[in-house]
Specification:
Blueprint (H helix, E strand, L loop, with lengths): L13 E2 L11 E3 L2 H6 L2 E5 L7 E4 L1 H14 L1
Antiparallel strand pairs: 1-2, 2-3, 3-4
């Protein structure tokens, strides 16, 4: 079953602090959508108009914890 589309046209995307001036190989996320829609939108910083994932706040938190531990 596919989840309903979320309007991300007004999303304020945040880039990882590890991303460089040229965009690097990082991701961006729109954290305010977690409170409104219950999901965290994620996209490739090099392809802002490309596909986006929406994941649960718990999955996002686990991903961030893992990335910090590996970094």
């Amino acid at each position: 079953m596919r989840a309903p589309a979320i309007d991300l046209s007004s999303a304020r995307w945040q880039r990882s602090s590890y991303s460089n001036q040229d965009g690097g190989n990082c991701i961006e996320w729109a954290p305010e959508h977690a409170a409104v829609h219950g999901v965290v939108p994620v996209r490739d910083s090099k392809r802002p108009g490309g596909p986006r994932l929406t994941i649960t706040p718990a999955a996002w938190s686990a991903f961030v914890d893992f990335a910090r531990a590996e970094g």
